[in-house]
Design a protein that fits this description.
mainly alpha; 4 helices; about 75% helix; elongated
């Protein structure tokens, strides 16, 4: 029997990581816009948003179940979330490259990598109590 997690996303500990990623995306965009100009600013923002949207999808899919009885459903939802995240990332990059002109690819990838790095390092930076 699979036990569905009814906790809203904003109440899960992963929400703190997503919020930190959103903050980094905005700060990176503002910094790039101030230093390199508007095109670099929105390019960095788009890169950060690609990473953030993909991570939001993963969090939604991955944390749908809990409990020992739901172990198989948890593994399947993590796998589906990761595959969906990769497909969504590729689709969003393709959409940005086709639809957004002018674009600064270096700023786009810098925003993406910085937001991904924030997610990867957020677990190291979190306090021992994940509820605060």
């Amino acid at each position: 029997m699979n036990i569905r997690n009814k906790t809203p996303l904003h109440r899960l500990p992963v929400f703190r990581v997503l919020r930190a990623q959103a903050l980094v995306a905005v700060l990176m965009a503002a910094t790039c816009a101030g230093v390199f100009g508007g095109v670099a600013g929105y390019s960095a923002l788009l890169g950060g948003l690609i990473a953030l949207v993909a991570n939001l999808y993963f969090a939604y899919k991955a944390f749908r179940f809990f409990g020992a009885r739901s172990a198989q459903a948890i593994v399947q939802s993590f796998w589906a979330g990761e595959m969906g995240k990769l497909i969504l990332t590729a689709a969003l990059f393709a959409l940005v490259f086709v639809a957004v002109h002018p674009l600064q690819p270096l700023a786009l990838f810098a925003g993406y990598v910085l937001v991904l790095g924030t997610g990867a390092s957020a677990l190291l930076l979190m306090k021992s109590n994940p509820k605060h």
